[in-house]
Amino acid sequence: MKTREYVGMFFGKPYLFRRLTTLSLEEFEMLREKLEPAWKESERKRLDARKNRKRKVGQGRPYELGSFRNLLFVTVIYLRTHASVELLSLLMRVDKDAVRRPITRILPLIQDRFIPDTPLLSGRINTLDELLKDFPELEDVIFDGSEFPIRRPKHRQKQSYSGKKKRHTKKSVIALDKKTKLIIGVSPPRRGKIHDKKQLEKTRWDQKLPASIGRYGDLGYYGMKGSHWHLPHKKPKGGMLTRWQKTLNKRFAKERIVVEHGIRGIKIFRRIGEVITSKSDELFSTTLLAAANLSNFKRLVRQGLG
């Protein structure tokens, strides 16, 4: 059986397909339709940029996996699982380079492609300034830090060691819109020792957001200034919280829990949810953004907004 026919068999088994990708066949086709024009444009630019070309553009050996549909399928499986490129190549019955090349070329298309066109958002949202301009409905933002376990680094191990997780990690701040539950910001990953409050201050998101937008956070952001910050009550040293303060904290936790669900939507892609094996910070950042965008895509489609 040819490789393209073999890969095509996965599309004939909806249950297995969803288990492998977290997407239904209909959702995957919507994703393909949104990404394919950008893929064709990026391929054209890549081929035109090659110097000393001996063949015309379009000639030469095609991708062993075949169509963009198959290439995207392998890329989503790469994000969904923690399988190595070598293991994926055995699963797809191709050489490892036939898997590695499309993954490295498609991931950047996903990381800056979404949030997709919706009644709320129009076009790509790449910066906070564009978000505020194109998303006037933004009222409340929930912040939370998330840690991603990594292998023990060879150098400056203390900077990567998280006292909370008791292991070496990278940390990123996740910003989520309280109303739509969409992830609207993922900060560049930093070493796990950094405090949540300090990392948020380095992003300067708090300064860029207008005072009219409420900010929600856990006690990791205790000390943030401004009446627009909403934080739970902290137990005083040597004292106790009142019954009313405990009740307010429970209500606050119910409102803030959606950011935990948003983080879970990212970490369901096991390339991010398990121990990070990539040595390149750039590749990890690209993979993290791609997982966040796919999480948004699923939410938008399932809410009927995609």
Describe what you observe in this structure.
- The chain has helices at 3-8, 14-21, 25-48, 68-80, 85-92, 96-111, 128-134, 157-160, 196-203, 205-208, 243-267, 270-273, 281-302; strands spanning 140-149, 161-162, 167-177, 183-186, 190-191, 214-216, 229-230.
- The model is unreliable at 115-127 (pLDDT under 50).
- α4 crosses α6 (96-111).
- It is elongated, with a radius of gyration of 22 Å.
- It is built from 13 helices and seven strands.
- β3 and β4 (183-186) form a beta hairpin.
- It folds into two domains: 3-111, no CATH class; 128-302, Nucleotidyltransferase, domain 5 (2-Layer Sandwich), CATH 3.30.420.
- It is of the alpha/beta class and 306 residues long.
- Keywords: Metal-binding.
- One of its GO terms (molecular function) is metal ion binding.
- It comes from Candidatus Sungiibacteriota bacterium.
- Its cofactor is a divalent metal cation.
- InterPro entries: HARBI1_dom (IPR027806).
